[in-house]
Amino acid sequence: MSYIFPRLQQIISRGDDLPTLPSIVLELHRALENPNAGAAAIAYVLDQDPALTARLLRLANSAKFARPGAPITSVPAAVARMGLNRVRSTCVALAVVQGLGGRHARLDHQAFWAHSATVAALTGSLWDLVGDRRAVSTSDAYLVGLLHDVGLLVLDQYFPDELGQLLQARGDHDTPLGPLEERHLGIDHGAVASLLLGRWSLPSFVGEAVFHHNHPMSAPAHVARLSTVIATAEAMCWQADLGLEIEGRPPELAAVLLRKLDVPAAEVRGIIDWTYDAYALAAEVAA
Prior knowledge:
Structural class: mainly alpha
Number of strands: 0
Mean pLDDT: 85
Largest sheet: none
Strand content: under 5%
CATH class of the largest domain: Mainly Alpha
Radius of gyration: 18 Å
Low-confidence stretches: none
Distance between the termini: 35 Å
Helix content: 55-70%
Number of domains: 2
CATH superfamily of the largest domain: Hypothetical protein af1432
Number of helices: 16
Oligomer: single chain
């Protein structure tokens, strides 16, 4: 099985038919960075994308948020029902799902984005507890969690034969995917994602944290904690049977990573229980 790095570099440098981050995601992200942003700011951005607004309103009227009375028909009303933070994170997830759906061969599109959005929600929640929010905001941490596995989309779209051979050779579905990717392809999907993210005008730490999310112990100091939080969120998903099957078992157990992060024990059970709600919402967003 040949290494894919030289061909991947050519694809990235040409930019032909590469997935692109929708501009509305960057606009939403900038709005999130404004502490004074409210429903009006979110509505102003969403007005540029009626399809995204329609999906948000459909979610606001879903069984998850259903309330007696007339259906929700505006973004401010959706904010009142769902809460600003939930609407913010949901909008980013919806925009990325909409923009990066693309073609796919082996990946289950809905399962992929449900997992990605769940990891993002957990990353944001954990970062609120143990992250340095002066250096990286919670919305930035959420975005990193959301994009952590986009390298799998690239492998699925541009190297389906190599990915298929790797999965066939793996045999045991529990075997972690990252080390096998490095051995057989010369690069893991975190590194693949970082090459793509470098084209998306995002802060450099986003790509760096994603690069190291499968091996946070080797991450440079300025992204080590964020990479560890992403790894922890993935391990928690796996423990809750909400992991992405193609990735296999995480290299480290959730309990080990939670201790490394000094997450208060009193918080862990609530976070685990909340994970199931986060996944249910993510699956509805990705549908």
